[in-house]
Design a protein that fits this description.
It contains eleven helices and seven strands. Strands 2-4-7-6-5 form a five-stranded mixed beta sheet. Strands 1-3 form a two-stranded antiparallel sheet. It is globular, with a radius of gyration of 20 Å. The protein has about 270 residues and is of the alpha+beta class.
Length: about 270
């Protein structure tokens, strides 16, 4: 499947999720969810399709086709970007729990001020969700199961998904760097990938770090600095971009062996399962 289809489908699905949080029209939300599945399963690369051809994708009408045109032109969907600014990052983070829907994520944030998965797990164990409408013992058990599932998988993804995104990130950052490559478990071709490192050679790393944080599929910045930034993405686990001063023999592309300086350690944070 074309990588553009995966990314566009993820954005359309995110649009549906964000509208669910903000109380959008239920019919439109279902239409976006259906469209996201159709885009992900479409055999042709949507980035090569004309506006008229986009409408030929099953479940894609004129309005959604315009959003795909927006994606093809800008690499994102502007409505998604606008909605992201309206919804706290903590709420978006809670929606990554597979058994917690967008409306309930917003409810625990607004009613209890919960903005992290660890806080939510603690609140359930302390019985603080019992007073909220729609939160019973069964709901609590389902949420805890979802959290345990996330922790047991360590947010790992299949190598194909990680490799596709790694290629895109390297391509996006390469114009700003003298050399750029990915490393870590992806370089070692492990079947599933947890953390991924991207190494960039540059004498001025700040523009690289800013570009890395601004990539359209970055959902959360875990930590940032002039020479190293760690993020989560909507498509594949946690990523760290580290910059090092150029030297002879370093890789020029993702197809060359990647160096392993001390700055390329995987991202770790208390709220991020390993």
């Amino acid at each position: 499947m074309a990588r553009a289809n995966d990314e566009a489908a993820a954005l359309v699905q995110e649009l549906a999720d964000l509208l669910s949080i903000t109380g959008g029209d239920a019919f439109k939300i279902r239409a976006y969810e259906k469209a996201a599945r159709a885009i992900a399963g479409y055999p042709d690369d949507i980035s090569a399709l004309s506006p008229n051809d986009l409408k030929k994708i099953p479940s894609i009408g004129g309005a959604i086709a315009k959003k795909l045109e927006d994606y093809n032109q800008t690499g994102t969907i502007r409505q998604v970007e606008e909605l992201r600014t309206q919804i706290p990052a903590g709420v978006r983070r809670l929606t990554t729990i597979p058994t917690l829907g967008p409306k309930k994520a917003l409810a625990v944030y607004e009613e209890l001020g919960i903005s992290s998965i660890d806080e939510l797990a603690a609140a359930i164990r302390e019985g603080r969700l019992r007073g909220l409408k729609g939160f019973g013992a069964k709901t609590e058990d389902n949420i805890l199961r979802g959290i345990e599932l996330m922790e047991s998988t360590g947010e790992r993804v299949l190598i194909d998904a990680a490799a596709d995104l790694a290629d895109e990130i390297v391509a996006a950052l390469s114009p700003l760097a003298e050399r750029c490559a990915f490393a870590g478990s992806l370089r070692r071709m492990r079947e599933t990938i947890g953390d991924v490192d991207v190494l960039a050679a540059s004498r001025d790393p700040r523009p690289i770090m800013e570009a890395f944080k601004a990539l359209p599929y970055v959902s959360e910045v875990i930590g940032g600095g002039d020479k190293k930034t760690s993020v989560r993405t909507t498509r594949a686990s946690r990523w760290t971009c580290a910059s090092y001063r150029p030297s002879r023999g370093a890789p020029r592309s993702s197809t060359s062996p990647a160096p392993r300086p001390t700055t390329c350690a995987p991202a770790r944070s208390p709220s991020a399962p390993g």
